[in-house]
Design goal:
The protein has about 500 residues and is an alpha/beta fold. It contains 18 helices and 15 strands.
């Protein structure tokens, strides 16, 4: 369905479900101004979309846009349930609604040797300062939704460190039909999703609850099942005709997943922590300066049109990946597995996470990878090199021997304040640091878990415990060097 107004603005409207839901793409010539999932049956949704398009764009009449959207809404309301393009989650509609210019730009990006750098640059252009490694990691997590075993991530950091903003802007590069935004989730929420709604989606959750009680555990149980098995199955009591009966509800995945938290690593459920990549925001002063400078640039109103073009290009690129081969083989997987130390049981989770990240990299570079006789993409040394660089910290923490970057910097500051012979309380250690007490206590717990500080005297009554610096474990690289996996 297509419409245009006297201002030359073209609206491509692709039905994408029931009850008036449609993907609306607004174009002015070859430029994509907006591409959003809207419920056209709701007047506020139509008005907000029209107002956003007309804002700071002379000559665009919001009333004309609303009239076109209302006309489309009336057309959708008159459609029957058997109409071809009324299929929920229909990929063909989304692809057909993607502007030709965006398709060409997405294809060129996927073929570019600088693809990874482009991803980081584009998220920076959307307003994210620094954090380039985390941006690329999250982009690969989102791309992994297309795999059989997608990835999950938890972005950890102090309050106001930019966790949610970073996730939001990275997720904005993924088409709306690929992302489920769930800022709050009840224990049974996933079981009541529409059939097919979870398959190969990226669930972008909000901040993890600080209440680590039975309700919180139950709320994440379904997510853990989906992460491990790729599907949900549960008997639930349902009332039918006045009679309560148990009904087996099944929901197919798999899903990629990301959430944020201010909780210390030790305060996150082990079952959740081991299933996800733990990523840390940069708390350094220089990063705060970058953020303030970028915020100031945003308030000036610069870059809005460029952002819309970037988003449209990435939406097209992800849709191209959806339409191509998704199965990835790793020819060097056996060699890599032999080089992973088996001493810690967590290696059983770490190795599949590493392999899924390698597969996600190969999938993102699908236009640059060869396929085997069965049409499967073949991962290369470049994929392992990128993933090793991104995961050395997160998997190093899971397998032991590594601290998160913020905790390691905190340790260096402690070494500048205390000698190996001096003792200190946790309150004293936190009081002398620029970070908040809650954040510093979280780092101290991580240091204690890694044997980087050791307890001298336990607390007794009101008398706090005392600690001192320790040597800590050797921080050997837990992921094999590239040259070991690919010997000359």
């Amino acid at each position: 369905m297509e419409g245009s107004n006297s201002d030359g603005l073209t609206l491509d409207i692709a039905p994408s479900g029931r009850n008036g839901s449609a993907l609306v793409t607004a174009r002015l010539g070859d430029a994509v101004l907006a591409c959003e999932q809207l419920n056209l049956a709701k007047s506020k949704a139509r008005a907000d979309f029209a107002a956003a398009l007309a804002e700071e764009r002379d000559g665009i009449d919001p009333a004309a846009i609303e009239a076109e959207l209302m006309k489309a809404a009336a057309g959708l309301a008159a459609r029957g349930p058997g109409d071809d393009d009324a299929q929920p989650h229909g990929e063909t509609d989304y692809w057909a609604a993607t502007p030709v210019a965006a398709k060409e730009a997405g294809q060129a990006m996927l073929e570019s040797a600088g693809l990874v750098k482009q991803v980081a640059d584009d998220v920076a252009a959307l307003g994210v300062a620094g954090e380039r490694e985390m941006v690329v990691t999250l982009y690969l997590v989102g791309t992994s939704r297309l795999l059989t075993r997608p990835l999950s991530a938890i972005v950890q950091g102090p309050s106001s460190s930019g966790k949610s903003y970073l996730i939001e802007k990275t997720a904005a590069l993924f088409p709306p039909e690929a992302v489920i935004r769930a800022t709050s989730m009840t224990p049974q929420a996933l079981f009541y999703m529409v059939d097919g709604a979870l398959e190969h989606r990226w669930v972008v959750a909000g901040e993890r609850s600080r209440q680590q009680d039975d309700d919180a555990t139950e709320a994440t149980r379904a997510l853990r099942e989906m992460q491990s098995a790729g599907r949900l199955s549960k008997l639930l009591p349902i009332k039918r005709d006045g009679v309560i009966e148990s009904v087996l509800i099944e929901r197919e995945g798999p899903i990629a997943f990301v959430e944020s938290t201010t909780l210390a690593e030790s305060a996150i459920f082990d079952e959740d922590r081991n299933r996800a990549l733990l990523l840390n925001t940069d708390e350094q002063t220089i990063q705060t300066r970058r953020i303030i400078d970028r915020l100031a640039e945003g308030y000036s109103g610069a870059g809005k049109a460029a952002a819309e073009t970037i988003i449209a290009r990435h939406h097209a690129a992800q849709r191209i990946l959806e339409r191509g081969p998704r199965e990835v083989v790793i020819p060097f997987a056996q060699r890599l597995g032999e080089l992973i130390a088996p001493e810690r049981v967590e290696a059983r989770r770490a190795f599949p996470q590493l392999c899924s990240m390698i597969q996600a990299s190969a999938l993102l570079h699908a236009k640059q990878r060869e396929t085997d006789a069965d049409g499967r993409l073949i991962a290369t040394a470049d994929d392992y090199k990128l993933c090793r660089y991104l995961l050395l910290g997160p998997l190093g923490r899971l397998l032991g021997g590594h601290l998160s970057a913020p905790a390691a910097r905190f340790l260096e500051r402690l070494r500048g304040r205390f000698t190996a012979a001096e003792t200190f309380t946790k309150r004293e250690a936190a009081a002398g640091d620029s970070a908040s007490r809650t954040t510093a206590y979280g780092w101290l717990s991580e240091l204690a878990d890694a044997d980087a500080i050791e307890l001298v005297e336990p607390s007794r009554g009101r008398q706090p415990g005392t600690w001192r610096l320790a040597a800590g474990p050797a921080a050997d690289a837990v992921l094999p060097a590239v040259e070991k996996v690919f010997p000359v």
